[in-house]
Amino acid sequence: MGILKLFLRNAFRHKLRTGLTILGITIAILAFGMLRTMVNAWYAGVEASSANRLVIRNAISLVFPLPLAYKDRIRQVSGVTLVSWGNWFGGVYIEEKNFFPNFAVEPRSFLALYPEYLIPDLQRATFLSDRKGAVVGRKTAERFGWKVGDTVTLKGTIFPGNWEFTIRGIYRGKDRSVDETQFFFHWEYLDETMKKTAPRRAGQVGYYMIGIANPNLAGEVSAAVDATFKNSLAETLTETEKAFQMGFVSMTEAILIAIQLVSVVIIVIIMAVVANTMAMTARERIGEYAVFKTLGFGGWFIAGLVFGESLFISLLGTAVGIGLTFPAAEAFADYLGAYFPIFFVETETILMGLAAGALVGVVAALFPTWRAVNIRIADGLRRIG
Amino acid sequence: MKVPVSYSIRNLWTRRLTTVLTAAGMALVVFVFAAILMLAEGLQKTLVDTGSWDNVVLIRKGSQSEVQSGIERLQASILETQPEVAVGEGGRRVFAKEVVVLISLPKRDTDKPSNVTIRGIGGQSLAMRPQVRLTEGRLPRPGSAEILAGQSVARRFAGAGIGETLRFGMRDWTVVGVFDAGSTGFSSEIWGDADQLMQTFRRQAYSSVIFKLSDPSAFDAFKARVESDPRLTVEAKRETRFYADQSEVMAKFLRILGTSLTIIFSLGAVIGAMITMYAAVANRTAEIGTLRALGFQRRSILGAFLVESLLLGLIGGAAGLFCASFLQLITISTLNFQTFSELAFSFTLSAEIVWQALLFSVVMGFVGGVLPALRASRMKIVDALRTT
Description:
A: 2 domains; ten-stranded mixed sheet; two-stranded antiparallel ribbon; 15 helices; about 55% helix; about 15% strand; B: alpha+beta; 13 helices; 12 strands
């Protein structure tokens, strides 16, 4: 117990300096935690995808549609249990900054394919029976204060015009990894309107989403679907939902790498700050270390003193930093929920933060320890200041 | 009487390890600060340089990018006959109907697909973009399945190099030329014949029309008239404005991310500087007392310690900036959220950034040093001399 007391007393000999160092570590660990959480948020779509779902899109790129007529031929492919389709609608609510993802979907098969979206039975029934009905995620509904029965108008960017919808349901996610910001409505509504205004664009779907019986056969089913439409006007590219989502992530990889790099840099910066503190501390106490040695304490004891103090300071800062990460993440999620629909601190992030804090403490103590252990008693005592 | 600057410099030299560690922390912060400014600058420069001020882009009302837009042939023809369109060589109107789509191509190094913009161009398209220069090969023959690749596409995407072929829309397309458009968005595009591409992609409508104004100041009147014309459903923008708008979300994202990171980082570095300077003051109490006894005034002591901390900041700033300048060799390519296509841009160092980064480092030094320097200047001579 005695040695712990010594750490504590030593650590707070310079209250201001120690306080500043702890504050620095707190900030660094907080920033580290937030950046890591942001990286995780980037991968949220990948994490939330199901192995039972495949995405079929036009092989040229996502902006090209596929004919609706493909649905029956896709259904005939063995292993396919459910076929759903939809369009990225890209509608804007009043202003561009009110962004939320909105899709036109075939509602029955869509809800069957996504059991993780929980909608009360009554709302589900009214949504299915109202062609202008829409279902919206809890977070988006809260953001704009929408309630069931409200009328919402979206301005089309890809499909021109003002589109009116009635909110018929508000869905919740089965767990917190489900995106609760999306907006879905009947694909039929889109198609009927297109038939009237731009007949050439009717009967076209943006993507097919299919359910498969056995996730292990995803490769075979994908190949079979793509083979069906080989050498047609609209060739298809089928991949698992995970691969599809991963495609988006890898397109923005450069930003991700930058964020990951920066999260390491902040740890290095704080390492320099703590190492500086420890170097100064050890320099001031060289005389004391010489006294310890004179009294017969070994090099290991002095090493332990320096390491203990360094670890104590860095872990204290780390603990405060991690404690602050949770409210900070919550505030961030409230503020930028539109860009990062899923933003929560994972256990892994906490562990990494702890490891980073401990690493800072150890690295910062290395050089001062070496100096303290190797100093000759006579030199240490002779030294002033 | 002033304390000579050499006193401050020598103090830094005496505590080399501490000075290096503190300056290293600051250097890293300035590095990140400069890197983010350079990135935003590079992005903005790329997208602003892409347009010309006297060119006008028209897209369908309500659509945010050329890919989402569609302009029917009839509307395009109406626009072509507008009096504001400049008349170029041989009496031809400097006007192009273009079609812009995205195709997904695998990258050379990772084989991962990304979206690339394909632009179907008209006869006048090249004349309107003086920044586009052919560096290799030749121009495609009109009406053939030949394409031109922008330099950064040719380098990074499989099958887009000169002499190679790309397959899309049930046809093979030969890359017959590579063009360099400097640091503009066009370098990340593939260009082909508009009519051929429309047929391939079964498109009936153009994506956008672009023309050069005969009188650049006539834009506002033109915009007002065209946008209220009942035959047309278009939106007119100057080309510079058009491309600046396309970088808005991305630039904002970078700016927010950059600012918040820089603030957090600079807090860390300021704390580091503060610790160092407090220690410097505490270690030199007796020395300060001596200086005061010799007749140096409080102000001079304050100045000496401030100079020391400013120097510390400046060393860190210069080192950080030096490292950041090497970033100019790196080209970043990422997805532009708004156009949904790949865009290559590089870190760009401008005089303004150099200036801002150095100022920032000096400010960090000042903030870190001001409190310790005040403490030093407030010491009483007797107390200071008494401490050992």
